[in-house]
């Protein structure tokens, strides 16, 4: 048995067994002692014109003309072997876990049922030679009668259904397992650091690899739109996953390399990504719980400097509290407020120094705010990366199991071909 899915042709090497009684070929063995059987060519005696109706062979009748064996009672037996090529409507719905049923319809070409009554014997598959691609399940047969409007005579035929199951080991090793590995590599896109510069390249490479495998499947499948092969559905699903992962990677890179001067992060993004999703994924911002404890404020200071007010400058101590420590202390005088009339009427050089210090404090504060905003966008990108890793992992597993195990004979194929 050889199945050509591309051309939807089944090639079988079988023997036909036809027998009938011919009363004109009887003889008396007593008159012809020792003559038990005679052999005639098909041109010398009558033979039924049995043909394969759904033949796809160029010669139509591909049987080898052997001799007709006749005994003294007139019983004739004709055993023509042949390599039959028959049309077979291939159902690729569950490929490569499919079972094909191909018909072999035999009948007379010129005799009706009143002149030639066909009777069926069960197909003998004891001499079947195992095939590396197909397992023969059975060859059930049935006798049918057809009636046409032109004639009242019946036209019988004998139809055998060759039922074969595809052995999936070859396709699993060469198509399914590589596809599963490629789909697993899709998850590595979300593991690569955003600064590596290879996230998009990896996604595009996996997408191109899946396209090559889909072309291999298309070469062996018939060009039919009746159904989509199971493996084609799986490849299409994985390609959708890879395409969505590339889109998600673009969003991650946009967040990671976001310009801090381009605007603040929206409040709803901070609430959803930085709080809810980050809490669900058990993610924390770097240094979130590592803030050093600040020393308590001195009682003689009016304000304490904090991380959020890096430009704040404490006021000098009250000279009445520490009279022994404020003599000639120009440093405290330089940090006094500009509204202080003492500083306003003081040395111009001291005022210039104070302006420079305030300018530097403002620059440091702006720099800290810019870095904090950049870290915020990067952390949001990392949260999206982790979320996509979890979501695509779950979706990939569900997609693989649900599609492949939807085949009716998936368990049978696994038990017979892989165990």
UniProtKB/TrEMBL annotation:
One of its GO terms (molecular function) is transmembrane signaling receptor activity. Keywords: Cell membrane, Disulfide bond, Glycoprotein, Ion channel, Ion transport, Ligand-gated ion channel, Membrane, Postsynaptic cell membrane, Receptor, Signal, Synapse, Transmembrane, Transmembrane helix, Transport. The chain crosses the membrane at residues 169-194, 200-218, 230-253, 387-407. Residues 287-321 are annotated as: Disordered. CDD domains: LGIC_TM_cation. InterPro entries: Neur_chan_lig-bd, Neur_chan_lig-bd_sf, Neur_channel, Neuro-gated_channel_TM_sf, Neuro_actylchol_rec, Neurotrans-gated_channel_TM, Neurotransmitter_ion_chnl_CS, Nicotinic_acetylcholine_rcpt. Residues 4-168 form the Neurotransmitter-gated ion-channel ligand-binding domain. Residues 175-403 form the Neurotransmitter-gated ion-channel transmembrane domain. One of its GO terms (cellular component) is postsynaptic membrane. It catalyses: NH4(+)(in) = NH4(+)(out); Na(+)(in) = Na(+)(out); guanidine(out) = guanidine(in); Ca(2+)(in) = Ca(2+)(out). Its main location: membrane. Pfam families: Neur_chan_LBD (PF02931), Neur_chan_memb (PF02932). Belongs to the ligand-gated ion channel (TC 1.A.9) family. Acetylcholine receptor (TC 1.A.9.1) subfamily. Alpha-7/CHRNA7 sub-subfamily. This is Neuronal acetylcholine receptor subunit alpha-7.
